[in-house]
Design goal:
The chain is mostly helical. The protein folds into two domains: 3-185 and 250-468, MFS general substrate transporter like domains (Growth Hormone, Chain: A, Up-down Bundle); 194-249. Helix content is 78%, strand content 0%. It has 20 helices and no strands. It has helices at residues 3-23, 29-36, 40-68, 70-89, 94-112, 115-122, 128-156, 161-164, 166-180, 195-218, 223-245, 254-257, 260-289, 295-301, 304-323, 326-349, 355-379, 386-412, 418-427, 435-462. The longest helix has 30 residues, at 260-289. The N and C termini lie close together (8 Å). Residues 472-479 have low confidence and may be disordered.
């Protein structure tokens, strides 16, 4: 096996682990809460801290990786993540689990900021879509298979098993990485790190995500919540000023002003993640709270989505190398919208097993969109900016996840009370009298997601054509 194939395998497994850990917790929240006897406030911070730490550090780590070497950051990130997983598995209280999840997220951020960039750096541009099509399987499989794998582990073991499972995989990746991975080329020689830009961007994103994540529980008119929004707005203006003033900015804003493919593809990715996370999160809860399915059965109903996505992504990535990503991405987002419309019809009129059909179509649409879109982003920047591009794309993912759950929860609160919402989240149960209102709210939330998908379709279409690269080597046929 040649070097680029080994790198692709290691980074794909790493991507899977990082994204899985952000989604697998959802289905284990109730047994975890019961075992550790957590209050609602503490419980809220266990998934939130993971997204928060990743969001505020991804682009900074991507920039540092461009300056210091991506392989080094990738391996250190794996070690930190694996150590954080062990600590999380043996946590004796909710407060300690929050701290250990923050450690996990730091490692996950270092891996997320470098993996995609390492693949793009090693593969020639005429193979980038094919390679990222395989790599993106790890990311999306982790996001959408969390409920499936988590349901199995929680059903037959304890909630601690969702962290223990990371240990053998993490140790093997670290060992194989040190054996097989070569040091990355330092592509931004002579450039300096931008600490002020990194700090202000981190504060901006932290305040924004706290506003989005805590708004439903504390109330959108709460002075603390309003303060988070004001801080986010003010610090963002400071960040813009800093980035325009320094010689080597953390994030070159010209990428968004003048690089149409980069700006539109990242925006479409944000729309995609806003749709994906919220739908999967609330559908898993619907299956358990309303249909009274156990975690394993609920997970199996969601299984067609990751399977179809995994089958589709490599082919769509390879096809995008030849024809471009624009129409493939628009078609993929359109199919996701259709799958959500079918899901609404199933909830209203059809037997529950038909959910398998909607999830299969959902996964097919994700597979058409994800790898071509990711490939377009990475191809649109210079080699010295690959770490920043990778970090930006990952930031879109975790920000989209946070927005998604907050947005769809807000839609649900138009139909049910905060007390009922908290009961659903914490105990996966709902009073029978409130089921029709919850179902109506869920359908309204899915309609909002369809509108977001349509926005993603338009963003994919307006990006324009990216440059296509022809095969120039006989070695490129297989890897």
């Amino acid at each position: 096996m040649e070097y680029k194939s080994k790198l692709l395998v290691l980074t794909t497994i790493g991507s899977f682990m990082m994204s899985l850990d952000g989604s697998i917790l959802n289905i284990a929240i109730f047994p975890l809460s019961s075992d550790l006897k957590l209050t609602t406030d503490v419980l809220l911070w266990i998934p939130l801290i993971y997204l928060l730490i990743m969001a505020v550090t991804l682009i900074g780590f991507g920039r540092l990786a461009d300056l210091k070497g991506k392989t080094k950051f990738f391996l250190i990130g794996l070690i930190i993540f694996t150590g954080g997983s062990l600590l999380s598995a043996i946590a004796s209280s909710g407060e300690l689990l929050i701290v250990y999840r923050a450690i996990q997220a730091t490692g996950a951020s270092m891996v997320g900021a470098t993996g995609i960039a390492m693949v793009t750096e090693v593969f020639p541009k005429y193979e980038t879509g094919k390679a990222l099509g395989i790599n993106v399987i790890g990311i999306y499989l982790g996001l959408v298979s969390g409920p499936v794998l988590g349901g199995f582990l929680v059903q037959f073991f304890t909630w601690r098993s969702i962290f223990y499972i990371n240990l053998p995989i993490g140790v093997c990746l670290v060992i194989l990485g040190y054996i097989y991975l070569k040091p990355s080329e330092v592509v931004a020689k002579g450039e300096k790190f931008d600490p002020l830009g990194t700090l202000t961007f981190g504060i901006f994103l932290a305040a924004l995500l706290l506003y989005l994540s805590l708004g439903n529980s504390l109330g959108w008119s709460n002075i603390i919540i309003i303060s988070f929004l004001i801080i986010a707005a003010l610090v963002f203006l400071v960040f813009i000023f800093i980035e325009r003033s320094v010689q080597f900015p953390m994030l070159n804003l010209d990428l968004f002003r003048y690089n149409r493919v980069f700006a539109a593809a990242n925006s479409a990715a944000l729309m995609n993640y806003i749709t994906t996370m919220g739908v999967g999160f609330w559908l898993a809860i619907y299956l358990q709270a309303v249909l009274k399915l156990n975690p394993l059965t609920a997970g199996l109903l969601l299984l067609p989505s990751p399977l179809c996505m995994a089958i589709t992504s490599p082919f769509s990535g390879r096809f995008s190398d030849k024809v471009g990503s624009r129409f493939l991405c628009a078609l993929g987002m359109g199919i996701v919208a259709v799958s959500l419309a079918i899901l609404i019809i199933i909830i209203l009129l059809l037997p529950d097993p038909f959910i398998l059909l909607s999830q299969a179509i959902f996964g097919f649409g994700l597979g058409l969109f994800s790898s071509p879109n990711q490939s377009a982003i990475m191809k649109s920047v210079e080699k010295r900016q690959l770490g920043i591009a990778s970090g930006t794309l990952s930031t879109m993912r975790v920000t989209g996840q946070s927005i998604s759950i907050a947005l769809l929860s807000s839609v649900l609160l138009l139909f049910i009370t905060p007390t009922i919402l908290n009961q659903i989240l914490n105990a996966h149960s709902i009073p029978p009298a409130d089921v029709p209102l919850f179902t109506s709210g869920l359908i309204a939330a899915f309609i909002v997601s369809i509108c977001i998908c349509i926005t993603g379709v338009l963003l994919s279409l307006v990006r324009g054509k990216e440059e296509l690269y022809k095969e120039t080597s006989i070695e490129s046929n297989e890897f």
